[in-house]
Fold each of these.
Amino acid sequence: MIVTERAVSVSVNGATYARTIPVRLLLSDFIRNELGLTGTHLGCEHGVCGCCTILLDGQAVRSCLMFAVQADGHELITVEGLAPAPGQLHPLQEAFRQEHALQCGYCTPGFLTTLIPFLESNRDPSELEIRQALSGNLCRCTGYQNIVKAVQRAAREMRTVEPGR
Amino acid sequence: MKPPPFKYVRPSDLNEVISLLSQHGEEARLLAGGQSLVPMLNFRLLRPSVLIDLNAVTHMDSLAVADGTLLIGSMVRQRTAERSPDVLITAPLVVQALRHVGHFQIRNRGTMGGSLMHSAPAAELPGVALLLEAQMVLRSSRGERVIQASDFFCGPFTTAADPDEILTEVRFHTPPGARTTFLEVARRSGDFALAGVAALARIDPETRVLKEVRLAAIGVSGGPVRLFQAEAVVTGRYATPEALRESGAAAADEVTPSTDLHASEDYRKRLLNVLVARALAEITTL
């Protein structure tokens, strides 16, 4: 059926949202404007800056390069869903704070959602691997130096919390 | 930076896609990974009336090996191919090249077929397909046809596929005993290549002479190009530093890159010269 609107049901941070939306609505705009989850930021809206990165079924993707209708039936996690509980931070968020890995913070949600699946698949990354992993995200404040340090700190922390995983 | 209005359809069956294509032809666009198509829509470079989303179509993401040939469905995600042991064993060049395609977040969505059909001048996978003399399998309501990669890429963003055809599978074969590599230079990691080279060589185990050499360049023309002169210069010789340098020089002589704000024609030639020699050195050094 060829349509201009479509009903979708999407799981975001564990909650299911059902909406009928125009097919041209970008997933990034759906997350921000329909669901009010404004932690996902928009920089370039053509896939270059990485600000709008979210987790789609556990994998980091650009939410500005998908239509919201394509998320139908999938599980999303946005920056709002990274912390384990209210008042707590994910080890990578905590490391960003400790290492001063952000200044204005605009790019931070994209860095976090990019680097968490990276750290889950690479428990002891080298500096080169970290720099490659974050090469798809732009930050204009930090010069990346402290972001690298934060990832190293988070990797150490995550190994201590879940040793031998 | 929002896409223009379009109509959307998400078929689950390839025959449905083919019938939609025969019905809508040039008015329709196939949506695979969307990593090039969505930016083009956001920039309003394209205004298709219908988007046919392939992401729910079954059996388009199969990955198989038959008689040493890799048969890869066009909806296989680039990240999946990059991490597949089957791809690494049968067509290591595909893995070597995929590491340069965008960033890993892009490769999580981007597809093998999408990149080949988009056919951007600096795209890596068209260079791989050309070098490995891949077979491109196209389907339409008129049936199936198989096109050689050398006849498939026709210039910037242009392939031999008709508007009602869909690329369903690509077949990659690496000659037994061949070694391959893929090198490129981009301004930043993940950016479009200023120049890149795919290289393949077979060395005679007895004489140590280069028996077969294939070279393809990206980013220096409207599409991927084979470097036949550069290949001929080294084939049948020992892989001496002098022979490799001559091959690089021949490569630079047989292309006419364009100048843009990222690099001049001369700079791209210089890059290709160095990359060809470096790639050959890498795969002929034991």
Amino acid sequence: MLAPLHRWIWRDAERRVHKLIRFGETETDGGRDILRAAEVTPDPLLRRLYLVHAIDELRHGMLFRQRAASLLPALPSSSKPRFRHDWLAPGGHGLDDLEVDGGSDNSMLAFLHLSEKAAASRFTVYRDVLKHDPPTCAVFDEILHDETFHMNYTLVQLARVSPEHHKRYLWRARLSRLWKAYLRIATALAGVIGGLLLTIQYFVLLPPFAWLAKRAAHREPQGWAAIPRERGESLTRQY
Amino acid sequence: MNILGISAHYHDSAAALLVDGVPVCAVQEERLSRRKNDAAFPLGAIEWCLDRAGLEPDALDAVVFYERPMLKFDRILTCALRAFPRSWRSFPNAMKSSLGEKVWVRGIISSHLGVPARKILFTRHHESHAAAAFLTAPTRRAAILTTDGVGEWATLTVGHGERRADGTCAITLLREIRYPHSLGMLYSTFTAYLGFSVNEDEYKVMGLAGYGRPTMVDKVRQLIRPTADGAFALDLEHFEFHTTAARSYSSRFVDLFGPPRNPYEPIDLETPEGQRYADCAASVQRVLEDTLVAIARSLHTETGLTDLCLGGGVALNGVANARILAESGFNRVFVPPAPGDAGCALGAALFADRLHFGNPDRDVPDHPFWGPEVDGVELARVASEDGQRVERFDEDGVLIESLADDLASGRVVGWMDGALELGPRALGHRSILASAESSAMRDRLNRDIKFRDEFRPFAPVVPTEAADRYFELPPGGTRLARFMSGVFKVRPEWRDRLGAITHVDGTTRLQALDRDMSPRLYRLLEAYGSRTGVPVLLNTSFNLSGEPMVNRAVEGYSTFLRCGIDVLVAGQTRVLKRTPLPPSPVGFGEPGLEHQS
């Protein structure tokens, strides 16, 4: 249904590079989380599977970065992407952080299964709208092949480690994803409102103080500033 | 008296615990959370420290934070005001970041640990650096020079420290250079300009500098001018770090030095553009060194002291440290193993103990091994479960001899021994070791194991007694090399034999190892030397690119499986790689390993 929107997003080369770089970061972060899961699980089979999964994710990160790098020279120099915050981007940071150390393998597998499923569905759409860019399309193709394996093994292993309750874990993971999505949106909204309020304060309240601060800065001598002997005496002060 | 030191919220958070004036443990949060340069409040590190000492939080007499949060906030707000209206974009983010968490440190500590607010103390950032440098150094009196990006307001301080005969200590910081005039920020600006990560990749600029010529020194000197009183001032028209968070350098900077490097494209030193980047790195490195040497020389003249303690992140610049030792007039230069912010956790705790509470001075063990111990049994268990070839040795000598054979035959060894290092250097407890003899080994490590840029050099480790034979060490050089803090020349006649660790400019950042500091590694060097005639091994940190140094045996094991390390050792356990990844019932193929960034 959203294919026309995705087609429009991916048609622009600059947006494409941004998205690929962001995907690269997300996959790499995710890979590190899964690597951590491999290091903390007591289950030898899961350790091996997580490790393969982590290696795949790290490789995907590299594929995305490499593709973005190959597209970069074609962009005008003024539009080269810089590192940007994106509250709505799912990934290994922010509110989507995975608590690997404290969690169980059941929760981990359920979370991974749903994440991989969602990623596979998104990547399928992206691949389909990128027919005009065969190299990028090929990157998604390669990654989708791995995602199928990830989706399957996580489900099979969840059924193995929790034969009676694996469906319950999947539902819990779904609810957790919904909750995290809500938190992400709420935080993004709060961030926008907070930013707006602070920007208004900046222009309304700050000008006189800015004038004073600039005047003081002009009087400030350059070079060494002597440190008064009594300065360091109290450690209870925060200023 | 139990004192916990904490550094957090900027980069590389850490915790350190002092019991009756002596450090008992310290660890960086990244080593436990596995997030490189983790700046989060170091709850994991604090819990580990308390657990290690068998203490509950209510047994703490003081918790010391390494800087004064409100003073830092004062600087951030003042700079936003001074940059009005250019700072309008960065202002909301700066306020949200500061007011959201960073200024409420007392409450955060109190709520996490349940300690009353009166027990929570704050040192100044550069006092923490100074204490970490002076109070851990084996010297009675020394001049102190601390320099980094910025603390609260100070970016560079000079002073002196003294251990008095009555057991008390004094640290007197005489004067400071204040933000935005900062050597650390100057270097970080070039780090960003050269396409590397600020606060993380500054050492890459130093490595790249070896490939360049300082042809742009005059241009760099337009950015940093000496002041009449012997300090320096940045020409702020060339910078934006003090006005926005988006970019460190201004358009005028780009006009002067040319277009910045695209971080996603590799540096090709064969091209004029690649050479320009290297020349740029060499030029800023030269100016940094000259500036530091001039300040250190003046401090030497002023104090008349023979020892200098260096602290702050800039003290990780081994080339500059070596020049300070050679040219400033000081006989000995002490740099702690963690001169950056992580070491401030220890510095803050020591500062409070010796200067605030006035406790008598105690000798601080002269080593960096304050972290968790590695467990060889854990390695044996996980590797056996995966069907790897595992050997347990009852006699350490047999293990050491077999490892010497491995290294002499060109195998790469992942080495985990005892307690984890504090600080960014692998100093012999979490290292990747290899033969230092050929440049092919350097290329193999960069390509198959560390997955990093070709121009990055590797460091050697050598017994202190043998160091002078292979390296040109000035008087005091072995001390600076104790924690890999100085870059020195490899003797010309050994450069071919030590091709893996000799940088393109004939230098290396060596570690001179005392037997007492790491006896097993020392014995390994001896055994290796008896086979090859050269007791020098390549020693690089046990991690892959973008990851923190390994801590537990299982982390070493997962790293071992993902790269070209041939042999893994933890305690008395040795693992030989049977397959890059162990076979599994689901039948996945062998993955490629060239994917690491």
